[in-house]
Amino acid sequence: MRIANLDGRLAVLTEDGTAALDVATASGGRFGPSPAAAYQAWPSFVDWARSADRSAAVPYDQDLLGPVSPLPRQVFAVGLNYVDHTAEAGFTQPEQPMIFTKFPSCLHGPRGDITLPGDAVDWEVELVVVIGTRADRVPAPDAWSHVAGLTVGQDLSERALQLRGTPPQFSLAKSYPRFGPIGPYLTTLDEPGGPGDLRLTCTLNGEVVQQGSTRDMVFDVPALIAYLSSVCTLHPGDLIFTGTPPGVGMGRRPPRYLTPGDVLESTIDTLGGMRHRFVQRA
């Protein structure tokens, strides 16, 4: 099942993803129009959505899609979670997940323009986990039961600010406006294709710059949820950016960064894709 934020309103998509059913209208007001509010009643909402009559669904403009969880309390991100990316970054693989945050104000939808704040902005395609039910000290075998679904993300980073000073400014450098695009929709776990082996691809102006699989994660999704929830309570709608495969701009020799006019496309098997154009700051 695919669930979307369509112009700020909660929608359920048809199986092929080409038409949308407005939830507030179709449910007769049982569920409101807010995409963020759906996570607060996630189990009952999903039960309704699975059997909802989609005959009234209508085609929609993909440019109107917004972030699938627009108001999370927390946005976590995981560094060095793919072995080959760790190597290209010049680090030793951590013995436990390396966690930082992205501020929720950086979230953006799956399409549109993104302003470059400097000349060292890098790309990182990532699988993003959306939490569906409260998770507090959850053991790894139970972790998937707390997940609403999965989506595609980009952990955009301004590397000059990120590496400035000691310690580096990870969270701040990754939280410029629109530096956390996610989408195009939320895919629930009952969709075909196992989350343990999803292929991630990132292209820059049509050139493949990143390609990898979630099977190459050092810490898989259940391990990440268990680790995070041992410290922080995870709330419905929270996001976890789970790390990126190799091929980022900073790891190239010489480094390669985004420039005005560049088009970045980010896709994950069965989860859809995003497309963003980068523009110069006015």
From TrEMBL:
Domain Fumarylacetoacetase-like C-terminal: 75-278
Xref: Gene3D superfamilies: Fumarylacetoacetase-like, C-terminal domain
Keyword Hydrolase: yes
SUPFAM superfamilies in UniProt: FAH (SSF56529)
GO biological process: small molecule metabolic process
Family, similarity comment: Belongs to the FAH family.
UniProt-listed PANTHER family: FUMARYLACETOACETATE HYDROLASE DOMAIN-CONTAINING PROTEIN 2A, FUMARYLACETOACETATE HYDROLASE DOMAIN-CONTAINING PROTEIN 2A-RELATED
Protein name in the entry: Fumarylacetoacetate hydrolase
Origin species: Phytohabitans suffuscus
Taxonomic lineage: Bacteria, Bacillati, Actinomycetota, Actinomycetes, Micromonosporales
